[in-house]
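Data card: per-record layout.
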Amino acid sequence: MNKCCLVVTSFVVVVCCLLSLLLWLFLTDVDEPKQLASCGGCHCIVDPTSPTAMCPTDVPRHDYTEEEITTLRLQRPVNPFNLECDPYDDENCHLSPSEVYTELGDTAVCGLLYNPLMVTSQEDMQSIFAPSDGGGVGLGSQFSAKNSDTRATCPNAPLDYVMASYPSREHALADGATVTHVGACGACSTTQDLAVYLSVPDLVNASKYCIKKSLLNQKETMKCFQGLGFSESCARMWIANGENTAQRCAIPCTAMELQNYNNNGAAPECSLNSCLACNAESSGSVFDKFAGRTRRRSGVLSTIARPCEESIIIDHGYACPYGTSGVAALQTP
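The structure for this 333-residue chain is written out next.
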């Protein structure tokens, strides 16, 4: 009997040691940042089933200057969308103030209206957000064309802007807005969060590193994401997304992490690895709805290759006009 107990105890100790070792390897494994994605030499995945499909000649811009990124980081929205709940666990979770234009269809865009008049009360905000008869949100007429104070890093750059969702790019431009991403606005639609997307190409590894900290200390996770530059609500969205993926995709993501798989497979398919595929299925739609801004929706290249039909072209140089009126060089979503 004693011999049996000794064998069982020894087995348990060995298993615990092995699990501890795997956990230690998982937590301490830090991958080198990956380069921008390429699928067979193309920035996106050309449809392998189409014999005539070709790599697009238009490539999303990725040569933003430090001045442009700094300007985006310093600008602040008049109406940030706050997230104080976990949309994956709470079916009643919503942004505050509630974004009432989230059901605008596949052509919806998030627009930025620069140089807003000072808004001093909740009543002012409610009057500003009254929909116009033309089908847009009707914000442009509420703002002055006068430039705000300038930033030292970028002459004539405005300080503030209002975020507004529109049914289409045409509605946004008609209202005087600059399209910053496709899809309705959300917790990550600020230019501060855009600056992170532009300055940290490999957010896959960066976010994995931050999520690992949640296993040890939840407060450290928020510090980590905000340390990347995210706004508080966008950081909370990334944390919720990461934790949901960790719960639902533990096996494929642990395997991918320990084996250091690439984000995409071989060309021409360049399929997502099993962890990213699971994340897309289990967390993607909720993230899109609440975050608003994603790298794909913003026309920002990343370390993950995506289908070419999902490629978006938006030039975010509008924030740093270098002495011009601040109109975007290219506003096509």
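Known properties of this structure: Confidence is low (pLDDT under 50) at residues 11-28, 117-151, 323-333. The chain has two domains: 66-194+312-319, 201-308.

See the next section for split statistics.
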